[in-house]
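Subject: Interface between my chains keeps coming out wrong

I've been trying for a while to get a sensible model of this assembly. When I model each chain on its own everything looks fine, but I need the whole thing in one frame so I can look at the contacts. Pasting all components below, labels as-is. Any help appreciated, I'm running out of ideas.
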Amino acid sequence: MGNQGRPDNDKKIGVLIGGSGLIGGGILHYFKTRSEGEFDLLAPNSKRLSLRDPEDIRLYLKRHTPDFIINTAITAIDSNPLLTFETNYLGTLNLAKAAVDLGIPYIHFSSAAVLPTGENLSEDDQLRLTPELANYPKSKLLAEMALQEMHRTLGLDYTNIRLAVVYGAHDHKIQGFQRMLFALADQTMPFLFTDQQAMHSYSNAKKVPFFVHHILSHREEFSGQTFHFVDPHPVLLSQLILTIKSYLELKRPMEVFLPYPLAKFGAGCMVALTRMLRGIGIESKMPPELMFLKNFYQTQSLSAAKLKGSSFVDPNPQATIFTELPMLIQYYLTRWEDLNLIIPDDTIFFDPSKRAEIFQNDPKQILASLGADVSQPFLDTCMWPRGGAVDSETGDKESQMQLQQEGREVRQ
Ligand SMILES: NC(=O)c1ccc[n+]([C@@H]2O[C@H](COP(=O)([O-])OP(=O)(O)OC[C@H]3O[C@@H](n4cnc5c(N)ncnc54)[C@H](OP(=O)(O)O)[C@@H]3O)[C@@H](O)[C@H]2O)c1
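Reply #2:
Try treating it as a single job with all components included. I did that and got this:
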């Protein structure tokens, strides 16, 4: 099935849904820049192919007859029940049905939201499906369950990748980890909204495309399986907050752990206030993450043992949320400052090379350096090793070990 009958049938065609999002964007960038010769990844946006419209899915997939489908799309986590159901569940179901019809792999993204709290949770753990679940976890859980069933009854070749708290740059929304960073940078977190023990697992967005590439090339091992794609060690939320605080040299939050009942009461007051403001025509919205407030006080760590025991090799085992923090802080704070969402105390931090200052005050200097800027070839200046490093990009254990033995750098 798949690309039979197409002229260049050595190159696999994939369809990625959600390519403008945090995870999808990283996958798209990776496949466009690092595995060009092997794959052609199509990424229709939601205007071209909406998961809410089965006809969109049908028409697009029939026209392109891909060799695999990757679904990273979700609706906003605070969407209403219908939008959540149609996008996160029915959309998933229709893509999986199309994958069965075409006889191709379907790569699905799920979330730690389908798991209970607790330590070292395994891939077999799942919440109980009850009406009381919030829309987002309910839709993700339903989707996981439907995929398991379709694998069992229809032979669906799928892999379910469960992510925990994702950290990574190039995101356009302030959500999840970014929400916390924003609250700290904006100085709206007076106390620690957690306790001394609460730990969580984190997923590195940069590493996700390596895993996707690897599982596409190793279907036998990964088919019909769920994997926790998380860093091996969970992180204390309080330690993360205090590390960010110290990087930003902030006075707040104070090192006082706000007990959960008080935090809940505060959140309740804010909900009442936003309702009141809306009642008098002032647009206001609570951060959707407040629905997860309780999780800030509870440990949820996902076991990475299954991932570690697989043939996939972490392309950068040293990278953790802590090693990536300086880059993430620099990226997001610069962005939020550019958008006038926050006002920085320290402009040097935001623009160390003083490019904005020169642009504002001495534009002639920009033209004066033009000669030097354009004297270097542009197209042939490549940040990434090509050719020799291709093996490392598949995340294949054998070829990676070989590279490491040869003393060559295995880079992200
Ligand atoms: N980010 C996290 O912290 C996190 C944590 C755990 C699990 N996950 C999982 O990881 C996956 C990716 O999450 P993300 O954070 O990358 O999401 P995201 O940044 O919010 O991106 C969502 C994507 O879905 C697309 N989309 C929304 N409605 C659509 C529709 N009706 N039809 C087609 N596309 C639609 C959006 O496209 P448009 O922009 O065109 O609307 C966007 O590209 C999801 O399965 C999520 O559950 C994420």
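Reply #3:
Confirming on my end. Residues 383-412 have pLDDT under 50 and may be disordered.
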